[in-house]
Amino acid sequence: MIHGSKADTLKMLEGIIHNAKIFPQVSFTVKEWLQDSKCIMDNIMNEFNSTVIIRSSCHDEDTSENSNAGRFLSIPNVKLNIDDLHNAIEKVIVSYNRTDYSDQVLVQTMLNSPVMCGVAFTLDPNTGGDYYVVNYDTTGSTESVTSGDGNENHLFYFHKSKNFNNICAYSDDTQNKRLSKLCSCLAELEGLFEENNLDVEFAFDKNENLYILQVRPLVMRNKLSNSELQKKELERISEYINNAQKKRPFLCGKNTIYSVMTDWNPAEMIGIRPKPLALSLYRELITDNVWAYQRDNYGYRNLRSFPLLVDFGGCPYIDVRVSFNSFIPATLSDSLSEKLVNYYIDLLKKNPKAHDKAEFDIVFSCYTFDLEERIKVLREYGFSKDEISQIVDSLCLVTKNITDFERGLWRKDEKKIEILEKRYYELMDSNLNDIDRIYWLLEDCKRYGTLPFAGLARGAFIAVQILKSMVSVGIISEDEYSAFMNSVNTVSSRMNDDFIMLSKEGFLKKYGHLRPGTYDISSKRYDEAPDMYFDWIHEKEQKHDRKMFKLSLSQMKELRKRLQESGLSTDVIELLEFIKCVIEGREFGKFVFTRNVSEALRILKHVGKEYGISEEEMSYANIHVIQELYSSTKNAKEIIHKYIEEGRAYYDVTKQITLPPVVTSNIDIWQFEYPDTEPNYITTKKACAEVVCLDDDINSDIEGRIVLIKSADPGYDWIFSHDIKGFITMYGGANSHMAIRAGELEIPAAVGVGEKSFFRLKQASIVALNALEKNIQIIRRDKNEAR
Fold this sequence. Notes:
Layout: H1 6-13, E1 25-29, H2 30-35, H3 37-47, E2 52-57, E3 75-78, H4 82-95, E4 104-109, E5 116-121, E6 131-137, H5 144-147, E7 154-159, H6 173-193, E8 198-204, E9 210-217, H7 227-244, E10 258-259, H8 266-269, H9 276-287, H10 290-297, E11 309-312, E12 315-319, H11 320-325, H12 334-350, H13 358-361, H14 371-374, H15 385-403, H16 409-429, H17 434-472, H18 478-487, H19 491-501, H20 504-511, H21 530-533, H22 553-566, H23 572-610, H24 615-618, H25 624-630, H26 636-654, E13 662-663, E14 671-674, E15 680-682, E16 686-693, E17 706-709, E18 726-729, H27 737-745, E19 749-751, H28 755-762, E20 764-770, E21 775-781
């Protein structure tokens, strides 16, 4: 079967498709309309007995080269009278913006209030993967999916290798039956057209009849995936996850979950499909061993030798059971720890949307002023008063040992960061060769960089939790919380001041190592592309006026009382200084350790150049190549090429698979819905402006705009040298670097909106971001999109 116009294709499907229905139609050419419009309208009124939809069916629409989806007008709910029909048909023809008398207009029955409607693809349009991808709405709207304006849109993936009758993505059996019926229909359409790249509009009526509204070629710019290779990898992943759902020695919890954002946020820091070099570097520096050493040092359970991150076909995931174990105070008994981890896992399974806020909404990892109220929820899950008391006491002890202003564990980590700075200059002034220098830059980074940074980050998280609890118990207001965060003076805010005060050379000497994508060798450093990131021409103005944060006498008394009751330090000033110092220390620690990472990548790029290897090719290598070359006399060029070939082959698989952000069982590998994500709104301000996505073009003019970026990476600090109105990130937590920066600079932000919302916002022209009311509205969609 060959694709024709929209009208011709639907007419061809009438009578031959078994798994769906086609609405009756009246179609005609522009020439026929111009010759006898009255006869056509009489025909329409004789054919239909209710409102109709007048649809475009232009020859420029929906070709195998260009879809032009939504480019031409369709008018719904047209009444059956001469004037309304004539006006609607004329408007549709005018929207063609050309004179081709063979173009058609299609008239069909208007389906009002469908129980489910949307668009389905017979391939993953982003990867070419072998999935049915269904974007649908159940609110009764017929336009929310195609317009991109709906807030209740669902995005469902189903791998074609599985049985359509076994869809069990939802507790609602009716929804599962609809999706099963739709997937069967999609398979039938693939057979009829002898193509596997179709774009299908569909709807279910209240009687559960499935209607096909349009079938067109899905225009694919990317290479299609290798179905067999993809299936084999998914089978390996599925088997791994199934085997992991068992009790493990030395680990609390009866089973596990995997998530891209629950701990150390790999999706935020390296993305969901990182190149092998970035993935291996992140594991080496943080998630293989360093993370567990830090938690153990700070008084939590010993998880040393348990890697936190696993990769599924190259896609990084956090083993949530391991993460939840690491938040259990070491003083708790094994039996109570087991009970607590199982509670956390069960709660996350019930509420997977909380995977990027687990430490706020799921886990009790430190003492806060509202803890004893929040932790009462454990009574509903069978915890006794004594058990809850033990948990509170253990959290209080951990928190006290970390937060003590003079002797707290964070103090030692603060000093280690200073050691890293000194050792960095020694290494750079030494006569080491390139491989040796990279090796020691990374070894130092682990010992004196990421390890103490992890400690400072833990302290900063506790600090923010304590500060937020001061709001929840009524000691300070939301505005006072914002004022405190605004008073924090991090290295990033000093960077803004230095951008104004220092010369270009002086500024780049200090901050030139930063890059958007700390672990990405292909990302340009500030000093490699300064004119791309900064405006050095126009006059620079100081943009940041700091607010004053001050507690009243009654607030001081209430806070002191709370501290005495908790057993923490009774010095209010020291507590506030701890909060301020540890947040600033975390940001400084990150600034310092990323210099080692950035310099190691710069030298590695130079090593590649010596052997005729581009930075793109080097991005497929594994950082273990440095360890192998450091401790052997093997041929460097051969070894590097070996790692690159292995990495490239593995990444070919990575590009083909699509997985959900949260995996609760091996079934989720084959069928899943992308969940809605609740963003972390920062400040109480609002902004309405044009949006620009830096992942599309990092050279975009961002002045006066709301900026979209995928991650909350510190390398994006350069955006604050421009007068942006706000920013939105796909990934990122409430305590991420960019969240801290937003509060410090009082810029409204939505951190971690999730993939679905991010891609919807990318299609917008103007967006209203209201951090106070916690919402984002599309004010105007892109002029090239359907209206």
